[in-house]
3-oxoacyl-[acyl-carrier-protein] synthase (Penicilliopsis zonata CBS 506.65), 428 residues
Amino acid sequence: MRRVVVTGLGAVTPLGVGIRRTWKRLLDGHCGIVNVGLRDSRFDAQPCKVAAIVPEGPRQNGGWTASEWLSRDDERKMALFAQYGLAATEEALEDAGWKPTASEDLEATGVCMGSGIGNFDEIYDTVVAYDKGGYRKVSPLFVPRLLINLGAGHISMKYGFMGPNHAATTACTTGAHSVGDAARFIAYGDADVMVAGGAESCIHPLAIGGFARARSLATAFNDDPAKASRPFDADRDGFVVGEGAAVLVLEELEHAKARGARIYAELRGYGCSGDAHHMTAPKENGEGALMAMKKALKSANLPPLSVDYVNAHATSTVVGDAAENAAIKALLLGSNGKKRPSDINVSSTKGAVGHLLGGAGAVEAAFTVLAILENVMPPTINLERLTDDFDCNYVPQQAQENTINVALTNSFGFGGTNSSLCFAKLIL
């Protein structure tokens, strides 16, 4: 198999527009979760009134203004999740120094960009308009703005990339699947470079209401939004929906070396599994998560002992965090792993950015790559109290310096879909 490395990063998140701004604010302990009652009065009747929203404002201040990234015509044609994906791609390609023009390079560059839900606003607004006014109230752009694969499609069209054009949609595992699938396109020789990531923007009263009815969301901190997402904490009571996008430029190692590209890390392993258990809840022992992580390490040809850090999926739900915690300990403790739970380094960045659903795995992959690059573990903010089963090092409240040669990042989704990515410092 050909080796795959990361040469570019880009992000649009609730902590700001731009991967560097996002990363700095993450390490500094900031939070992008706010009360959304002022955004739409329909949130007032809901049990959950918080969400992690991309801040508006000029790009130079880390805010989102669509006109700084898109023409008016493109903005009209593209759903917001796709706009975020395109902006993250622009940053990642600039970071990688990859803007090819030769036909052979364009043919060898592909896109793998997914979303979990996509353009929820468009569905709702069109249904209401159709119900009131019939066929003529349906926009001719309804379907193109609706389709999840148009995120990848618009990127391909803007830059002329003619390699694999792929869109995963596997709920909250989407971003990780997109990155892992893209790596395999390179490993198997279908492309030399892949733009890979996930994007989401579905902070709508109906979407929030649906998650709330499923009893998945945090409801106890509406008056203190920054405290609402609290992975691993004893007082966690649900996740917080977030929006944004992240993109990694993946590249075949020799291709990157030949053009003198800066290499962040190597994507060493990718593992997937299914719980075969329940629509929304994992098995309490974390069996599916454990299988995905085992497969990622097997793919990387690395033992559990080598793992220096785990960027957890941990969304701040009672059952989910406990199941993942059990899986991580089952993987990393034992004769081929760590001696004590306290030797296991785990953190969840969802306390700061919320749960970006289809974008989460890509954002967290980017965070994991930067953790390896800078030898620093991002904090789990709002982690104030642990129960007895949580006895690892969860990097509470403040970032910690630590040599990180190998790291895992996990993503799990409704339907029992699981994925784990293994990144490592490049060794030639």
Notes: The domain at 4-258 is CATH 3.40.47.10 (Peroxisomal Thiolase; Chain A, domain 1). The mean pLDDT is 97. The longest helix spans residues 80-96. The chain has two domains: 4-258, 270-424.
